[in-house]
Amino acid sequence: MAGKEIIVANPGSDPDTNAIVEAFDEALEQLALAHQSDPEAPNTEVLEAALHVIEAPDGLDALYARVPAMEAKGVFTNSDWDQPVILRPALAVRTLRHGAPAYTSIEALSELRLLAVAMGDYRHPGISAEQARNFLTQVTALNLDLLSGQMSEADRERPQGLGHIVNLLYQYLLNRLGYESILDSLVDEVRRLLAQRPIQTDSIKQMVSQIAKCLFDPAIETSGMDKAARLVSALFGPTIGCRDDPGFAIYGERLAAMDEHALAEEAQGFASAMHDTGMVSSYHPMLLRHLRGHRDDLIPLALGLSITGNDVLQSYRQIVLKLIDEVVHPETSQAVYGLAMFLERGSLFTPPVAAGLWRQLELKLCQAASDRLSAVFGDAHPPRVYLLAGILSLLGQPLGVGQGNNPTCQSVIGLSMWSFNDADFLLQLVAWAARDDDVVMRFEGQTITSQHLEAGLAKEPPTDVDPVSLILTPHLDRIYAEMGRLCGVRDDDLHRWINPEMYGWWVGHGFLSVISRETGKIHEYDEFIRHFYACYHPYFNGNIPVIHPQPAGIAVTDSGGRLVGRHAITIIRVNLDSHGEMRTYFFNPNNDSGQDWGQGISCSTEKNGERHGEASLPFAEFASRLCVFHYDPRELGDRSVVPETDVARATELGRTSWAASYE
Length: 663
Fold this sequence. Notes:
Number of helices: 29
Distance between the termini: 28 Å
Oligomer: single chain
Helix content: 40-55%
Strand content: 5-15%
Radius of gyration: 26 Å
Strand order of the largest sheet: 3-8-4-5-6-7
């Protein structure tokens, strides 16, 4: 289908539309010609012409039919839209609804392209039909306020009729995808994302808000939407006291009038909804703040703590209550879940962690850190409050951190590993970055300070990330790049030396890369796979579990098995699933771990024994995408007993997909 014209009903049948479409076609041809001599030639005229086509009768059909031509002639070249798999729904909505005309235009064209992919009318090498539909589901969810076709004042006042253009596009998407399928898909998408327990839930909560508007709109048929109703209830009315979403003032009055039994029911209701979904209602912090100093004995119930979590709370009662006083507000509601999971993990029983948190509570932030936090999270509370909230979320959800739309996977797996098993070191790094705007590390005996280093892979500081990542990732990214510079030219992949110095002593000092440093080609692939089995597969390594998360490099492929790029992940554990199949469970920092890598290899995030935030694959399928890994040379199993059938399967999957680029 790629490269072939898409057939639609009567595109451009109106005479006026024909002239406008011809102008668009001419601009498209001129762009293609310009790219022959100047690959950086701008697409300005095409984008301007596209806006006129969208407004014309049958104009969207005409553009939809030209999706292959737009791709072939370079409309998306030299822009983020050239790689649709990296696009973010929340950013797409802002671009569409608030962007300058050129940005609104290219976003509209991109979404028409994704619609063609989702409908099976166009095959794009960089994104699958399922991924395209998931993206459009989220975008339409965040635009459900346009479901009725009515525009807000802000939309109507946009220049060049952009509000009307966006409305036309949205109605077109909904008509093609179907209202019912969107709502059903939207609910499933929200539940799928929540099952991974991300730290950042703002965009998910926005989607739930739009679902709520649909449920209460009498013009929309929503019968049988019990799953949707449960999501809406968990966010806006999980308890008897706030079931009607009364607003903070009225709910505060109701809390003041509740007796012991009613307060206990509220606590139980909030905890149940929070642990069921991973979302925290904004009313939940109000209950916790009401209980403080009044009924502290109900706080474990309100947090949904087990015996373990309650033991931690009672042992470190003073600091936990102080954290609730300082951090828990409606604007930082997700920190409640972070706090609960932090207590459940028992990390406070490591003495330096409590001391590090006391320091953080009193820490004076530098101006640079304060400004970044305020710019992203607002000024309803001091910047230190948002940072503390982020720290609780990260310590409670080590596998919930994501890199956003930033090339910072190396830094983010560090945040995850440290919060997982070296929390006091993470707190030290945060203190340095937040107070001193500097981070200090050592590489082979040489001290590295981040403050004055040049930018690493991320040329601009990330803004679409959690508070800890916002403050710490730019420093880590620069340090990682500096370690690479200090390595100079060596006889193996530089990660071999950088990772143990960057992340910690637990990173295996044994290291294998399947790509030769000298030739850039695949070498000794069979032996590489055999070695991985002997290091990590319990049947062949003496049944030794993965003790600490281990950094590894994978080759990410699209749904056609084609190489997208190399990516850093961490191997968490290797275990049998409920069906008796050996699986590798890993952390992928790319925000959404449920991916289709082609050849029938689909990363699972639930229903195969995954813990929240883990992705998993059958062992051989994971091995087929592996590029580099660390191991302990003293715990290497017997490579000779690894079945040749397993080795052959993994290498065949690799060689017929990503590895073909390196043969």
